[in-house]
Design goal:
By secondary structure, the protein is α+β, with helices and mostly antiparallel strands. It has six helices and three strands; from the N terminus they run αβαααββαα.
């Protein structure tokens, strides 16, 4: 099994993603409801319309993230977010999801 590296990134560290993806396959998951990661990587700022029903929120709820992955460039993929991520705790409660819901969806 290939090793997987997981990074928790702040806004400054996001600029490292293109460099990390030169050597390794990188999946960036935007867990910020403001969608800063996707905005920085794609230049898209109308997140609610551009990625409606195609975000990490739906990936977690459906327990399957692969269909929500967006290819940014070779070796760099992204699962976007938007303002509706704020509803995740309610959805997790209603569906009985546990704290490992993101991990299980991957």
């Amino acid at each position: 099994m290939k090793s997987v590296r997981v990074f928790v990134l702040n806004r400054l560290a996001v600029v490292l993603l293109p460099f990390l993806s030169k050597e390794e396959k990188v999946l960036a998951i935007d867990m910020d409801g403001q969608g800063n990661l996707i905005s920085l990587l794609t230049g898209e700022y109308d997140l609610c319309n551009a990625f409606e029903q195609r975000t990490i929120l739906e990936a977690i709820i459906e327990k399957y993230a692969r269909s929500y992955i967006i290819k940014i460039k070779d070796n760099l993929d992204l699962i976007p977010s938007n303002d509706f991520l704020a509803t995740l705790p309610r959805h997790m409660y209603e569906k009985g999801l546990k704290l490992d819901a993101l991990q299980k969806s991957l």
